[in-house]
Amino acid sequence: MRERLNQFKLILIVVDFFAILLIFELALFLRFDLMIGGIPPAPYDPQYYFLLSLVFTIGEIFIFMNQDHYSNLPVQQFTWILRSTFLKVTLVVAGVLGFIFFFRGPSFSRLTVGYFWLLNFSITSIVHIFFGSLYKKFIFSKSGREGFVIVGKDKKAVNLVERLINDTTQDLNFLGFFDDSGEKNLLGNISDLRNYVKQNHTRIVFFSIPEKGDSENIFREINFCHSEGIKIQILPNFSEAINNSNIKIERVVDNFLVSVQPTPLARFRNRIFKRIFDILFSSFVLIVFSPVFLLIALGIKFTSKGKILFKQERLGLDNKPFSIYKFRTMFEQIVKESDTKWTTENDKRVTVIGKILRKTSLDELPQFWNVLKGQMSVVGPRPERPHFAEKFREDFQNYMSRHQVKTGITGWAQINGFRGDSSIQRRIEYDTFYIENWSFRFDFKIILITCVKVFFDKSAY
Q: Are residues 302 and 442 in the same domain?
C-alpha cells in the first residue's frame, strides 16, 4: 500500500543526491571563483573538496532517511519542513566539521562550508516543500488514490477504516462495506461484491473474517477475487491472540503460518549497542554527580537514623530477581512491609529529605550502579517487587512481557505519568509499546523528557 510513497522517497533521494553535490559546487564557486569573503588563504584542492562534498551528501541523505524526514514530507506543513531541514543540515555540517577537527584532517575553507550550509538549507527546504506539495496534490487527492472495499462489517473492520483515514501516508480511498447485516449505507450484501468489482474495476478488497458464525460465503468471495487477480487483504479473527505482537505471515507449501517476530532488542547487535550506551552513560552520571551523592548521603545521615542506601528485591530481565539500590527516603521499617505496601501521598513513613528526593527522583540515582553492573538499563520498564509482579501476572494479560528487556531507571510509561500505583493496564500498554518500537532515538527522547520532567513530576510522592 505504500508503493507510491516509496517511489516518491526514492525520486527525492536521487534529486537530493545530485542537488546537494551541485550546492557544494556553488559554494566553491562563490568562494574560489567570485572570491566572496576575500582571497582564499589556501590553494583549491578539487579532489579533497569533492570527497568532502560526497561525505556531506551521503551523511545528509542518511540523516533524512534515518529520521523519517522523507516519509513525513507529504503530511507536514512547510514550517515543519523548514525546521526539520534546518536541524538535519546543521547536524550533518557540525558533525563532519567536528570529525575533521578531532582527527586533525586537512585544512579547508570555513567560508565555503558556511556558504554550503546556508545554500543547502535554503535550496533543500524549497525542493522538499515543492515535492511535498506535488505529492499532496496528485497522490493524496481522492482521484490519485486507489479505491478499496471491505467485505464484512465488524468492530475490527470499522477500526481499520478509521486508522486508514487518519493515516495520510496510505494512498487508499475507502469506498464502502459489503455485509449481510442489512444495515443502511452498505454497498450491498456479500453476494453483490462480484458485480461491483467488475463494474467499478476495484483492485483491492479487504476481508474481515468474523469472530463467530459462518464465514463460508466470505471464503467463496476470496477465491473469486483471487481468480480475478484482485489484491486481497485479510483481517484475521485471532487478533486478540496476537495482540501487541510483531507478526509475519509465511507460506509453507500450501499453508500459511503466522510467526511472532522478535522485538528490536531481541537482536544481539541492538543489545550490544544499548549496553555500551548504558555503561558510558551510567559511568558519566556516577562520576559527574558524585558531589551530589555525597550531599544527599550527608542529608540522610543527619536527618534520620538508619542506612543511607535502601536495598530491595525487584524482578528484571527474564523475571530474574536482583537487588535495586535507592537513597533511603523513609524511616527504617520491616522488610515485609516495604516489599508489599505502596507509598501513598503524605505517607508518614517518608522523611523530610525523603519527600524532596522522591519529588525530584534523586532517590533513584544509585540505580546507575545497577545499570553499570548490567542488572538494569537507563531506559526500560520500571522493575517491580516480586509480590506485586505475581499479583499483576494473574490480574493483567501480557504483564510479564515487560520482562523481555532489562528494566530501566526511567521509561515511556513513567514520563507519560504512569508510575507507582497508577493504572497498571496503561503502564503495560506503554511498556509494551516501548519494547516493540525501541530505537536509540526513542531512548534519547525518553531521557530528554525525563530531564525536563524530573523537577515537575506531580505524580511522584
A: yes
Beta-carbon count within 10 A of 337 CB: 10
Same-domain status, 239 and 95: no
Domain residues for the domain of 359 are 268-456
The domain boundary, picked from 206, 241, 261, lies at 261
Q: Count Cβ neighbours within 10 Å for each residue of 44-72 and write b for 16 or more, e otherwise.
A: eeeeebeebbeebbebbbebbeeeebbbe
Dist. CA 53–CA 56, nearest whole Å: 5
Residue 45 per-residue DSSP state: -
DSSP labels, 112-134: HHHHHHHHHHHHHHHHHHHHHHH
HEC readout, 66-117? HCCHHHHHHHCCHHHHHHHHHHHHHHHHHHHHHHHHHCCCCCCCHHHHHHHH
Query: Does a structural domain hold residue 90?
Result: yes
Residue with cell 524511616: 331
Task: Give dist(CA 456, CA 461) in Å, integer.
Answer: 12
The one-character DSSP state at 305 is S
Chain segment 305-316, per-residue pLDDT in tens: 888 898 889 999
Order the strands of the 146-151 sheet from edge to edge. 172-178, 146-151, 204-208, 231-235
* CATH number of the domain that residue 170 is part of: 3.40.50.720
Question: How many C-beta atoms surround the C-beta of residue 205 within 10 A?
Answer: 23
Residue 461 maps to a domain = no
Does 234 lie in the same domain as 277? no
- What predicted TM-score, i.e. pTM, was given to this entire model? 0.48
Out of 229, 261, 293, pick the residue that ends a domain.
Answer: 261
**17 & 81 share domain:** yes
* Banded pLDDT at 351 (limits 50, 70, 90): confident
Bigger pLDDT: 211 vs 444: 444
Same domain membership, residue 407 and residue 305: yes
Does residue 254 share a domain with residue 108? no
Say yes or no: 88 and 165 in one domain: no
Contact at 8 Å (CB) between 218 and 210?
yes
Cell numbers that stand for 218 in this block: 466470505
Q: Tens digit of pLDDT for each residue in 366-376?
A: 999 999 999 99
Total structural domains within the chain: 3
* 403 within a domain of the structure (yes/no): yes
Alpha helices by DSSP H, listed for 167-267, are: 193-200, 216-227
Whole-angstrom Cα distance, residue 163 to residue 155?
Answer: 12
- Reading the block at residue 25, the C-alpha cell is 559546487
| Cα 200 to Cα 209: distance, rounded to the nearest angstrom | 24
Residues 6+ apart with CB under 8 A from 401: 244, 428, 432, 435
Q: Is 227 helix (H, G, I), strand (E, B) or coil?
A: helix
Question: What are 427's three cell numbers?
Answer: 503502564
Q: Are residues 351 and 332 part of one domain?
A: yes
